[in-house]
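User: I'm preparing a small set of examples for a lab meeting where we compare how different chains pack in three dimensions. I only have the primary sequence for this one, and I'd like the structure in token form so I can line it up with the others. Please keep the answer compact; I'll paste it straight into my notes.
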Amino acid sequence: MLPLQVIDSFLLNYNVGQALLLVFILATVGTLPLKSRRIIAANATIFGLVFILTPQALAPVHYLFLGIALLVVGPVLWVTAER
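Assistant: Understood. Below is the structure token output for the 83-residue chain.
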């Protein structure tokens, strides 16, 4: 295990939006082997909500626009997915 001070000193260089973006990318890459467009659509929609609900004091405004884009793309992927 890493000491908490090492993790804290690493995370101080980044904001919450960058951390959420990294988690979104890792979650999307993790769902790719499942080959399900519905899971990717649900992932995009949920992270769109998370990006929109993140307070502006913690993340720059461009993450809000990313959240809006994901909230548009997610349902489109869901509707176009094969059953």
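A couple of notes for your slides: Residues 17 and 61 are 9 Å apart (CA to CA). The longest helix spans residues 62-80.

User: Perfect, thanks.
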